[in-house]
Amino acid sequence: MRFSTLPAILLLTLLPAFADSFTIGVEQVNPPCLPNSTQCGFRFIPLDLKGDPLINESFRLPVDVLEFAINAPPFTDFTFSGNLTVGTLHFMFTPEFVKCPPPGLNCGVGFGPNLPFIAGPVNGMLQISINDGSLESFRFRYQSIPPIPEPASFVLLGTGLSLLGCRFAPNRLATRH
Q1: What is the pTM of this model?
Q2: Total H helices, total E strands in the chain
Q3: Domains and CATH numbers, the chain
Q4: Reduced to 3 states, what is the DSSP secondary structure of residue 157?
Q5: In terms of DSSP H, where are the helices of 75-136?
Q6: pLDDT in tens, 11-41
């Protein structure tokens, strides 16, 4: 075997593994997490081509935010684009170039839309193209987590209901004689 053919063989055998080493997933809040808490952690749920996980919003501002992430191998600058469908909502991600930091540091990018509250599970699909390659499709189901009322809301509700009960209930003490 000639010396020049060895690099070509290595290049052809390592290149497909390198091209497939991007990890695409969704950021999810680690339960339990109370509203307005700064103690919430995130976990990364990888998406695969055959999966169909049930996911929730990544975090809640005035609107729900669904954050997807692409983790890249070291030494890799890349461009990505894609489409996202959640129920009847459609979003398009225009091509974006990501420059990775110096070697030894993790490289990735987070992206995602703001979503309205979605009560029931709906089907979703994320289609991503990395470095102008073919679109890869990842299926999932999405459902918003209902907001938890604060304790003061329960106190106000209880007070209002007890006042309504006193106002419209017959006065039983006066009718006992």
Answers
A1: 0.66
A2: 2, 12
A3: 5-148 (2.70.50)
A4: helix
A5: none
A6: 333 333 334 578 898 888 766 555 555 556 6
pLDDT at 35: 58
At residue 115, φ and ψ (nearest 5 deg) are -125, 150
Helix/strand/coil for 53: coil
Give 59: exposed, middle or buried? Use CB within 10 Å, 0-12, 13-18, 19+.
middle
Q: With a cut of 70, which residues of the chain have pLDDT below it?
A: 1-20, 30-41, 103-104, 147-150, 169-177
CB atoms within 10 A of CB 27: 19
Question: Cβ of 162: how many Cβ atoms within 10 Å?
Answer: 10
Position 10 scores a pLDDT of 33
Q: Sort residue 112 into left (φ over 0), alpha (ψ -120 to 50) or beta.
A: left
Say which residues have a Cβ less than 8 Å from residue 122's Cβ, sequence separation at least 6.
Answer: 86, 87, 141, 142, 143
The CA distances from residue 161 to 94, 123, 167, in Å, are: 52, 39, 10
The CA distances from residue 107 to 46, 62, 101, 112, 140, in Å, are 16, 29, 7, 17, 24
Nearby residues of 164 by Cβ (< 8 Å), 6 or more positions away: none
Distance CA 83, CA 167 (A): 56
